[in-house]
Design brief:
Helix content is 45%, strand content 13%. The chain has 186 residues and is α+β, with helices and mostly antiparallel strands. The chain has a four-stranded antiparallel β-sheet, covered by helices on one side. It has a two-stranded antiparallel sheet with strand order 5-6. The longest helix is centred in the first third of the chain and has 21 residues. It starts with a helix and ends in a 14-residue tail after the last strand.
Length: 186
């Protein structure tokens, strides 16, 4: 059967975007990107990939890849999610060859990671984090993320996290991912 709900949602989204105006949305995204780059580039322990010049924010999209020195990307994503209610993307973003090149992963290291994955161990694979902005994002969202990153870089987060090796995802110690099923059953 046709995706009627999807078609209605798409039409409503397009109507909203045209009412607000794509130029307005692009300007808002550039303002948030500029603000985030100013904050990120002044923080110690954070490396931003791509253009870091806030004055050129209008020339890039509102997605900023970064790395927290000395902390595995999956752990940073978990702390942001569980303790800050902040969603970021972590990993290689469907651009594995490019990310591996950025991170200077050698062929030997790649072979070692590949071998671990073949044995169902995705723990501590290379990757980055990525924050992204939408038309609903605001400056308070950026401030909240920066505050959490400061906590993470200083080791001042609450949870004791452990990695689930088959997925490579981090969870607070004792957390049962299956426990959320009760919220999704009828």
């Amino acid at each position: 059967s046709p995706n009627v709900i999807g078609a209605v949602a798409l039409a409503a989204s397009l109507k909203f975007l045209s009412q607000v105006g794509m130029d307005t949305i692009a300007a808002h995204e550039a303002d948030l990107t500029r603000y985030a780059l100013e904050k990120l580039t002044s923080m110690s322990g954070i490396k931003v990939y791509g253009s870091t010049d806030p004055s050129k924010a209008q020339d890039r999209v509102g997605a900023i890849p970064f790395h927290v020195e000395g902390v595995q990307h999956g752990l940073v994503a978990a702390v942001l999610g569980f303790e800050g209610g902040i969603g970021v993307r972590d990993g290689c973003f469907c651009a594995h060859p490019y990310i591996l090149r950025l991170l200077k992963i050698t062929d030997v290291e790649y072979a070692q990671f590949h071998e671990r994955v073949m044995h169902r161990n995705r723990a501590d694979l290379p990757g980055l984090l990525r924050m992204s902005f939408g038309c609903y994002s605001n400056f308070e969202d950026v401030d909240r993320l920066m505050n959490m990153l400061e906590r993470i870089t200083s080791g001042n987060f609450k949870g004791n996290y452990e990695v689930h090796k088959p997925s490579g995802s981090y969870f607070p110690k004792g957390f049962d991912p299956g426990s959320v099923r009760k919220y999704f059953t009828i």
